[in-house]
Amino acid sequence: GAGVSQSPSNKVTEKGKDVELRCDPISGHTALYWYRQRLGQGLEFLIYFQGNSAPDKSGLPSDRFSAERTGESVSTLTIQRTQQEDSAVYLCASSPMPGGSYEQYFGPGTRLTVT
Amino acid sequence: DAKTTQPTSMDCAEGRAANLPCNHSTISGNEYVYWYRQIHSQGPQYIIHGLKNNETNEMASLIITEDRKSSTLILPHATLRDTAVYYCIVRPSGSARQLTFGSGTQLTVLP
If you measure CA to CA, which chain A residue comes closest to B90? Predict the structure, then answer.
């Protein structure tokens, strides 16, 4: 079946511009995560959605970052007034319904470059 | 999550079995062992997980010692495409928390 998809795969933007990144999770997965990974670094958690519960936004680095999810489907991560330190690969992952084993399935990521 | 210890790097000949160890001596009774890998320039990939019984899927086998203080991920016939960083993670049952990877093991499959 289809895995997690993300778009665009690459995005180059000028400092100060807004960007929107999209994630399509695996159908039926109620949990969705956004992570950031800078070059040569580990995963940095950003935000977590679970069903209709309030999202866990504890990892968002600043108020320039926001994310939305429509029901249990598509999610968008928006970065306003991008800065050079926002350059990274942004990864989305989804996880099966509660009662499952909570393994996370990752998309290919969006490589964001802020010039 | 319980702390895990893995070797920094390992080499394996193509076609041979790759055996990746992980120590998790502080694991508690309700914690599962998960394995993920990350191939260069790709997102992490879930491999397998287990509680106390050995597990096998199409990608790998997971052997957990009887005392659950260590485990081994086995790739039965390693290929060049298995070159990646492999992460062993211990998490409570039903944990939906975000993943945190340690340093992992860089596995290099040699031709």
Answer: A103
